[in-house]
Amino acid sequence: MKKLNIAVIGTGRMGSVHVRNLARLIPEANLAAICDIRLEVAQAIADELGIERVVKDYHELLADRNIDAVLIATSTDTHAFIIKDVAEAGKHIFCEKPLALDLASIDDALAVVKKAKIKLQVGFNRRFDKSFKRVREIVSSGEIGRPCILRITNRDPDFPAMEFLRVSGGMFLDMTIHDFDMARFLVGEVEEIYATGSALLNPELNEFGDIDTNVVTLKFANGAVGAIDNSRKAVYGYDQRLEVFCSNGTAMADNESESTIVKGDPQGFHSAPPPYFFIQRYAPCYVEEVRQFIECVRDDKPTPTTGEDGRIAVALGHAAWKSLRENRPVKVAEILGGQ
Amino acid sequence: MKKLNIAVIGTGRMGSVHVRNLARLIPEANLAAICDIRLEVAQAIADELGIERVVKDYHELLADRNIDAVLIATSTDTHAFIIKDVAEAGKHIFCEKPLALDLASIDDALAVVKKAKIKLQVGFNRRFDKSFKRVREIVSSGEIGRPCILRITNRDPDFPAMEFLRVSGGMFLDMTIHDFDMARFLVGEVEEIYATGSALLNPELNEFGDIDTNVVTLKFANGAVGAIDNSRKAVYGYDQRLEVFCSNGTAMADNESESTIVKGDPQGFHSAPPPYFFIQRYAPCYVEEVRQFIECVRDDKPTPTTGEDGRIAVALGHAAWKSLRENRPVKVAEILGGQ
Amino acid sequence: MKKLNIAVIGTGRMGSVHVRNLARLIPEANLAAICDIRLEVAQAIADELGIERVVKDYHELLADRNIDAVLIATSTDTHAFIIKDVAEAGKHIFCEKPLALDLASIDDALAVVKKAKIKLQVGFNRRFDKSFKRVREIVSSGEIGRPCILRITNRDPDFPAMEFLRVSGGMFLDMTIHDFDMARFLVGEVEEIYATGSALLNPELNEFGDIDTNVVTLKFANGAVGAIDNSRKAVYGYDQRLEVFCSNGTAMADNESESTIVKGDPQGFHSAPPPYFFIQRYAPCYVEEVRQFIECVRDDKPTPTTGEDGRIAVALGHAAWKSLRENRPVKVAEILGGQ
Amino acid sequence: MKKLNIAVIGTGRMGSVHVRNLARLIPEANLAAICDIRLEVAQAIADELGIERVVKDYHELLADRNIDAVLIATSTDTHAFIIKDVAEAGKHIFCEKPLALDLASIDDALAVVKKAKIKLQVGFNRRFDKSFKRVREIVSSGEIGRPCILRITNRDPDFPAMEFLRVSGGMFLDMTIHDFDMARFLVGEVEEIYATGSALLNPELNEFGDIDTNVVTLKFANGAVGAIDNSRKAVYGYDQRLEVFCSNGTAMADNESESTIVKGDPQGFHSAPPPYFFIQRYAPCYVEEVRQFIECVRDDKPTPTTGEDGRIAVALGHAAWKSLRENRPVKVAEILGGQ
Which residues of C touch D202 (CB under 8 A)? Predict the structure, then answer.
């Protein structure tokens, strides 16, 4: 079977994960080239993995007829214009989340994608986690009735760098966005959001209006309700739990563990923390999402996470910010317009 | 040591639990009399336990100088006036929750209690659970830093009778009230509430404006936030979990289990549900709360759950109803007045 | 319904548990008298519980026609002759384990019991544990096939007093005896035993030939095999786990916990130890076994743990000692004679 | 850094796992060639992975100066003579367990290895499991005192093919051998073994003297005791648990899970089985053991699992068979000679 030729733009933290996966774990793809404006960063990883083509300017890749698809893992502010360029070049796109911080840029990019009739997949990696997928299977099968209450606990082990936080779109657009997408994946469309939170752990965030602790209430179109809670710093590790409570049962995904060891001593029993952070915890998801993207391109199927998924998750983030700032429940339609 | 003479008014579901405990498990008390307007109900339990004095009208007990204290476990609508009568008779009071459904009645009763200088304890049994107490110890010791996020899952295994629901004050005053008290016990005073919910499982509740599913967001005076979720019907059993996530750690109380058995078969592993309902789950708490009440009377110490605790929990219930009906966050001061 | 009049002989550690249970938690019985050669010990507990009749010499009780049954909780060396005296007086007997340390005394006592046609129950309390009972139900129902492997972990939190150890019959007769009975309860008759062990934790035990650590292998008549492991000192607490692995599944009973609390901190997750020791861990069993004894007397049914159960458990203990000393597998028939 | 050139002989079940790992996940190695007497089997996997050199006869590889090391994953009966040939050709060896079924062949092969001064590593993959390694760290650090009791539960999800069983060396040499090695890894040298077991699940095994269920008792040189239990068929999945109970604590490794999902329904809570079998459960170990082998060759360090480890594990297997057949404890020295 012919391999898909794929190029990766952006070889930073997430980009390098994708580059490694494509080079080693995804034989369905041929990693045709990698690109980073910091050429030396891309070159280092290319040397390590024996990747032949390394470019600094992604425009060089656009004209290459051999390249079928592009994976975009640059900083968020560049996603929208790169998507437009790549789409216009007729190549399929896998883009890291969020598509952009503002809906106008997203709408603009999605219009180009639509016109170009290329595939676009957004990097909501958690949808590919075996446990969360299993929750969805159980819930959507109807075997435990209709969804009533969604609970998501999503807490990072530590703060990202301050420079990143300043341009991240803030907690709801950088972190809670995963939970918004997960909520839609597991329960359905969200109609209204009420968000609370503050900078309890690091008051420095107040300087640019960000927070580090929050609880977000969701009302779904199907009548279910949900509560998300987030923290930027769980000292015991990356805390990733969720539950969909239904009319005839419940489905809960607990944390994974670094090991299954339990140590008993005079103080009681001690067990291992979760895998350190997203790159470890969701390692198999990063492989699986790209594998499915390649399959969708090849078989001309809809991608599992679409541009619309990317757009709505951002809209939910804006609804949360609006809710927090105005201290009132905000309808998603207020953000997405006349719906 | 002299035993406290105690009488029980109301020998229904909760009252009979207290009667049995006082007769068998609380040697510090002498169960002097029991009372129920349905005399035959009281007589049956008296016969079973060998209790000598059974009365129909609680006024008979008030003049009895030998009775030191009264435990009130009648229906909610009678609590306030019985409290007043008993207090005026100079006897100490243990009263089941809620004190009343309206704050005016509560204020009225508490004024009499204050004037009479008697002890009043309200039956927030969950404060006496060994696991929840341990969470409070951990949190209040400061060993895991300051509280940031409270999560409470409180789900009943099944609906109570419709007749009860119609006079119960609704989900927030009958069921969530325990969580409001627990929130104050674990984290501190609540300043604002936002409540969502609906009758997802039994639409008949809509007839009298009640709900069966909810998510309630709390903002605490100390900056922490909280999310409570409740359901009237968890088919897998009485679900009682909570967590206080703090700046340097977390303390979680998981469900207890009917047994520790795990069965493995070709479908995987199967473990036992929680103890069926509150009477089983919180059995030791019902003993402990009365034991502590007796100790407080004897040693002239403040009761662990006061009239004020009972009053504020009801106020939080009203705030939740107001929030649900007006779909906006409601400050507790709106309910309790100029604070 | 007429209450059974019961007397307790021996009010030490186990005896006082039974006295308290009979006085408070077993309304089916009337605690007619208690007896201890250390009269002041019996008197103290009688004062506490309001028990009227206290005697020093158990012979006083034998002539009392009102006493239907006697619970024997004296030191092991007195069990056999007290059983004989009580049986000859025509009273039913509940006797703590072991019946005696030597089989000749047991055979002697059981012959008198048989002739007197009274009921005898031996205090194998663990058979009444809800989890172990559930394992037996699962296994004996056949729903998971035939038993193949039994595993029992039974570890005490700390050593008993040296004076007790010197007269206890040693680890296999004092401690493993519970596991031998549990093995028969869950899987069936044992045919052969191989025992290993030594005094790893306290070499002082070598003085009188005792051990503190062991692993015992069992071969059952039905072909199943088993492994028991014991320690006198598990610093993390009283460790009580077992599993019956069957041809179509497995049934495992894990430890109970002091509380359900999990604390997360930078070192990982920490959970509570098991309930401290047998009196806490098996508290409900001590009530239930006596309740069932009373029911068996009343309804003239066979007792759930018979004299023969007591005899075989002791025989298995002797087989284990013989195996350890001769370092070879020992058939139970070598101990019990031509069977 | 120069890559190690490695060839794989035998591309069956285990061989193909190693081939895939070397091709994709172990960049430190260059997979120079693969070999299988069933050339078409090797060719298929070579085509899939783009491996250039495929040979039928391993002798072809011996003369190739470019090949630094050989991984042997052929059937057990060929291990010893291939080891000798490869060692004489001066190439380092990673060989799957067991080295051979008889000690004479092993001694013979190890003598050649010694003379050739090449590295030999034996494929005891479980030593590389993160949880078991952590148990060893805890135990060997001394933080929980000295080892007293080892418990290993090792149960396969289903029988291998009958043809394999007939030549496998039987349960103790094919399956328990892993536990013997783990026992040495975690606690130390074994002095004496007592083995019981029978063909409870498949009586057909009796035809060639094999068993499917066993319990093995170990006595260690340091005084600790151990119990291993094995079954060929655990219907709930591959069961891999162990515990080292020490004088000041315990370290337990529980099963891993296919997912962290818990489903609650009216029958209770249901959780996922363990990963299906050794290739899934120990996947990271197969990568790690080869990675460490490569590192040892490169840095001229002793391999983590030596020829001697392979030899002793086989000796323990023979001791177990002798014990079972003669129904007596067997000293390891009886097998290994005057030691």
Answer: none
Q: Cβ of C235 and A269 within 8 Å?
A: no
pLDDT grade for C339, boundaries at 50, 70 and 90: very low
CA–CA distance from A41 to each of A9, A19, A46, A55, C148 (Å)? Answer: 12, 12, 9, 11, 59
Q: Which chains touch B (3 or more CB pairs under 8 A)?
A: A, C, D
Question: Are D88 and D82 within 8 A, CB to CB?
Answer: no
The token pair at B266 is: 């070709």
**Measured between CB atoms, does C241 come within 8 Å of chain D?**
no
Cβ–Cβ contact B327 with C under 8 A: no
Strands B29-35 and B4-9: parallel
pLDDT attached to residue D1: 66
Answer whether A254 sits within 8 Å of D264, measured CB to CB: no
Find out whether D222 and D187 touch, Cβ atoms under 8 Å. yes
The amino acid occupying position D320 is A
Residue from C191, C201, C229 to probe the interface with D (highest D Cβ count within 10 Å) = C229
C-alpha pair distances (Å), D39 with each of A67, D4, D14, D95, D143: 36, 24, 16, 20, 52
> What is residue D175's three-state secondary structure?
coil
D142 touches chain A (CB under 8 A): no
Determine the straight-line distance between the first and last CA of chain B, rounded to whole angstroms: 44
A26 contacts: CB under 8 Å, gap ≥ 6: A287, A290, A291, A294
Residue C131 touches chain B, beta carbons under 8 Å: yes
Residue of A nearest to B247 (CA): A201
B236, B255, B265, B271, best to mutate vs chain D, most D CBs in 10 Å: B236
CA B151-B152-B156 angle, 5° bins: 155
Whose CA is closest to D19, among D4, D38, D3, D6?
A: D6
- Chain C residues near residue D194 by CB distance under 8 angstroms: 194, 196, 217, 329
Question: Per-residue pLDDT tens for B167-200?
Answer: 999 999 999 999 999 999 999 999 999 999 999 9
User: For residue range C216-247, what is the model confidence (pLDDT) as tens digits?
Assistant: 999 999 999 999 999 999 999 999 999 999 99
Tell me how far apart the alpha carbons of residues B79 and C137 are, in angstroms, rounded to a whole number. Answer: 46
Query: What pLDDT digit, counting tens, does each position of A210-243 carry?
Result: 999 999 999 999 999 999 999 999 999 999 999 9
Sign of CA dihedral C41, C45, C48, C53: negative
Alpha-carbon distance of D245 to D247, in angstroms, equals 7
Four-point Cα dihedral B137, B142, B146, B150, nearest 10: -10
Q: Closest Cα of chain A to C237: distance in Å? A: 7
Q: Do C247 and D155 touch (CB under 8 A)?
A: no
Q: Please name the residue ranges forming H helices in D89-127.
A: 103-116
Other CB atoms within a 10 A radius of the CB of residue D154 amount to: 20
All chains having 3 or more CB pairs closer than 8 angstroms to chain C: A, B, D
Cβ contact B31:B8 at 8 Å? yes
Pairwise CB contact (< 8 Å): B245 & A155: yes
Question: Minimal CA–CA distance to C69: which of C25, C30, C21, C18?
Answer: C30
**Residue pLDDT, tens place only, B11-70:** 999 999 999 999 989 989 999 999 999 999 999 999 999 999 999 999 999 999 999 999
- How far, in Å, are A236, C150, C262, C319 from residue C180 at the CA level? 42, 11, 34, 11
Length of chain C: 339
pLDDT (tens digit, 9 = 90+) per residue, D175-228? 999 999 999 999 999 999 999 999 999 999 999 999 999 999 999 999 999 999
C-alpha distances out from residue D26 to A44, C312, D290, Å: 18, 59, 8
Enter the tokens of residue D130.
């993160």
Q: What is the ipTM of this complex?
A: 0.96
